[in-house]
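Figure 2 data, in text form.
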Amino acid sequence: MQRRTFPSILLYSFGLALALSLVFNGFLLYKQSHQQNMYEYELSSSAQPLDQIVWQQQLSDCQRTNRQQDSLIHRLEQVSNAPPGQSIAVQQPAH
C-alpha cells in the first residue's frame, strides 16, 4: 500500500512546487512592472516642470531683450526729435 501512495505524493509535491513557483514568479513580475510604471511616471512628471522652467527662462530672456530694444528705440526717437545742431549721445545699455 505504501508503494501506491509514493507516486501520488511525488506528483502532488511536484504540482505544489510548480504552482508556488508560478505564483512567486507572477508576484515578481507584478512588482517589477509596478516599479517600472512608477519610474516612468516620475520621469514624465519631473520632465514637464523642467521643460516649463526652461520655457519660462527663454520667455524672460526674450522679454528683457525686447525691453532693451524698446528703450534704445525710444532714445533714438528722442534724438531724432532734438532741435537741429544739438547732438545727443545715445548709449546702448550693457548686457
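Caption note: The mean pLDDT is 81.
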